[in-house]
Specification:
The complex is a heterodimer of chains A (221) and B (265). Chain A is built from nine helices and no strands. With 221 residues, chain A is mainly α. Chain A has a single domain, classed as MetI-like (MetI-like fold). In chain A, helix 3 (51-65) crosses helix 5. The radius of gyration of chain A is 21 Å and the shape is flat. The relative contact order of chain A is 0.15. Chain B has 265 residues and is of the alpha/beta class. The longest helix of chain B is centred in the last third of the chain and has 16 residues, at 190-205. The chains are: A mainly alpha (221), B alpha/beta (265). The interface between A and B is medium-sized, with 21 and 29 residues.
Chain lengths: 221, 265
């Protein structure tokens, strides 16, 4: 096997790669924001003593943790439109699947982080006259998030990688564009190599940036 | 001095606290008059900390009544078997805790905030003060405990004694009518105990109303105008420091003090 590497065809149409990168960043941002904020709500719900909050939150976590994201995306794209009176775009289907799945996983991270805080921190806040909600917002969550940061970073990286699943419903993102380039030019080696390297170029700095953030957050300890 | 006619700031009657089957507090009555400095002594597990923690509702009493400034805390109603059940709303408890401050054995400082941030937190979040006003007031409280130069330091960089003084400043900033100290020097290295006790003594000289759970018998003698000796969840003996600490009448008080004075000379 002696392959003559030739990247010309990949670079011939930079707009295709740019469009793919823009699509990847768009769905990543949407899923990161939706997944983590919904995850926080779910995590708080799983921490609740009220059964009518705890039970639905737990059911949500168990359901979305135990079904594959790809199945969820395909279900939202092909099955949901038959049940509801409106269209589901590829972006909507993929974002729903990835966000809900991420919410289930990050919800467990939030719950664990909140539970890891000592009772004494709650008592310190309560003794000043804080309500539970104030204590959660001012004392518990800021410290919990610091402890959760490594796990949340991993989640963000997972979300970035999961964005490639959107190609299954032909949403325009990096992998989808790579497939397109590969099938037009019969150059899968170069096309997928470039796609992999572009992902690495995005993710490596992201991981480094979170190390810096973690160090800064740790200054108080 | 406590006068019999002064209206009590705090009145506790028939206080009981169970943890599961264990009854830790078995019926305590206590009046605290304005300006009282009450030292609470007792062996480990006697219930002295639980008593203190019931007074600001860190623990919910199982039975009994707590009256603060003439007002009963909680909503009382008769249960099925004729017993009185008390329920507490969060808003009521947060109001009570603003009037009854607490200093903990393990300081319970917020590690993600500087010393100044710790003292400001209640002023900002609970009292809703503006940032500048809260910072100025907090700085003043740090000066009172001799830590004005540590305002920007995080708790992890403070010694145990300094941490406890920040915690005292944090409680004082809320201007409580009653201050509870739960073994404030028990977690400290011996050489750091003095600075915290000196801070508490200054507060005593200002006429603050305070309850102090402690193992420091010598300090209790000089600090308090009343001493309670707790055993098995009841007040076993009480009176002036002289009466309880120098001339105890009860055998268990005598035995407790003998143990604590074992190596003194």
């Amino acid at each position: 096997m002696n392959h003559n590497w030739n990247f010309d065809a990949v670079w011939a149409n930079p707009e295709a790669l740019l469009a793919g990168a823009a699509g990847t960043l768009r769905i990543f941002t949407i899923c990161l924001v939706l997944g983590l904020s919904l995850g926080l709500l779910v995590g708080l719900g799983r921490y609740s003593v009220r059964q009518w909050i705890y039970l639905p939150a737990s059911a949500f976590v168990e359901f979305f943790r135990n079904t594959p994201v790809l199945v969820q995306i395909l279900w939202f794209y092909f099955a949901l439109p038959m049940l509801v009176p409106f269209e589901i775009s590829p972006l909507m289907a993929a974002a729903l699947g990835i966000s809900l799945n991420s919410a289930a996983f990050s919800g467990e991270i939030f719950r664990g982080g909140i539970q890891s805080l000592e009772r004494s921190q709650w008592e310190g806040a309560q003794a000043l006259g804080m309500t539970d909600a104030q204590a959660m917002r001012r004392i518990i969550l800021p410290q919990a998030i610091k402890r959760m940061l490594p796990a949340l970073t991993n989640r963000a990286i997972e979300i970035f990688k999961m964005s490639t699943l959107a190609s299954a419903v032909a949403y325009v993102e990096l992998l989808q564009q790579g497939k397109l380039i590969a099938s037009i030019n019969y150059n899968p080696i170069e096309a997928y190599t470039v796609i992999a390297l572009i992902f690495f170029a995005f993710l490596y700095p992201l991981v480094q940036a979170t190390y810096v953030l973690e160090r800064k957050l740790r200054q108080g300890d | 001095m406590t006068s019999d006619t002064a209206l009590p700031l705090l009145r506790v009657t028939g206080l009981r606290k169970h943890f599961g089957r264990d009854e830790i507090i078995r019926g305590i009555d206590l009046d605290v008059a304005p300006g009282d400095r009450i030292a609470i002594l007792g062996a480990s597990g006697s219930g002295k900390s639980t008593l203190l923690r019931c007074l600001n509702f860190m623990e919910r009493p199982t039975a009994g009544r707590i009256v603060l400034g003439g007002k009963v805390i909680g909503t009382e109603r008769s249960g099925h078997d004729g017993k009185i059940e008390v329920s507490y709303s969060e808003s009521e408890l947060t109001r009570v805790r603003q009037r009854v401050g607490m200093v903990f054995q393990q300081f319970n400082l917020f590690p993600h905030m500087t010393a100044l941030g710790n003292v400001m937190e209640g002023l900002r979040t609970v009292k809703g003060m503006a940032r500048d006003a809260a910072a100025a007031k907090a700085q003043g409280q740090l000066a009172r405990v001799g830590l004005e130069d540590k305002a920007d330091v995080y708790p992890s960089r403070l010694s145990g004694g300094q941490k406890q003084r920040v915690a005292i400043a944090r409680a004082l900033a809320m201007e409580p009518e009653l201050l509870l100290f739960d073994e404030p020097t028990s977690a400290l290295d011996p050489e750091l105990v003095g600075e915290v006790l000196r801070t508490i003594r200054t507060l005593a000289e200002e006429g603050r109303t305070m309850l102090l759970v402690t193992h420091e018998v010598g300090f209790a003698y000089h600090f308090a105008n009343r001493v309670l000796f707790i055993a098995d969840g009841v007040i076993h003996e009480q009176g002036s420091p002289d009466e309880v600490l120098k001339h105890p009448q009860q055998a268990r008080t005598q035995a407790f003090l003998a143990r604590h004075n074992e190596f003194q000379f």
